[in-house]
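Why do we care about 3D structure at all? Because function follows from shape, and shape follows, mostly, from sequence. That is the central idea of this module. The next example makes it concrete: a single protein chain, its amino acid sequence, and then its structure expressed as tokens.
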Amino acid sequence: MPRAADEARALGQRFNAVGVVWVSSEDREFALFIYDAKTDQIVSRALDRGPPFDAPTAASHALSVKSLLRASTVAPPEERIGAPAPAPPHDTGLERTEPSHDDVEHAASSAQPFEAPLLRAELAGGARVVADSPDARLAAGVSLWPDARRRFGIGVEAQVGPGLSIAQDRFTGRFSEVGVATNARFRLPLSRRLDLVPRAGLGLHATQIQGVVVKTSEAADESRLDGSLDLGATLDLAVARSMRVGLDLNASYMLRFQRYLVQNASVLELRPLSGGLALRLSTGLL
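And the structure:
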């Protein structure tokens, strides 16, 4: 036994072990030994037979090892024989409640990202200044966002409005305009719900002036086509998973100066540079 203790002590020091387990035989008698490095003590239990062990015998001896370890300092303090039972969880006095179905749905919807559809339908309404008076405008169109992150888009829209009323000494009538525009866009995220979407493109405008020459009571009707360079930006706010509302600023530079004359006198001049403000609503289609 002293020699076995010395060897177990040496093994424990060599491998920095807290315990050593081995099976010893002498005169055909077998025993299980456990060395406790902290107390420098050995505990043992006799075995009815030596190795090799069959499966049931090995399982039985494993339980013996576990029992012997619990009688030593090798086992954790809470698993040792005679250790006090663990204290019950501290009662804070607060009642535990399960989240309601509405709470779970609200948390899930709050965590879901807003959709970025491939195709969006858009509607905008606002006003612009093209002459001395503001002109109401309504636009409807679609935009396509082909890249995976939905950062780059292409838009097409039609524009219409009630036009401008003209009442002068020489002429009374009305100016109207219908336009189509196409543009390229870039979506710049500012936050989870807010985007800035600048755009640039080209427009085509069909203008018409209709009325009566006061002096001669003759009808006057003139139509023209004019192109434009367009710039704009929308501050876009997500209000639902696929719906957005935005404040839109836009500007157009007409490629041809438009002036309408009656008896060599101007009755309407359109500014080459016009600007407008609109409220834009968009929703996902695909």
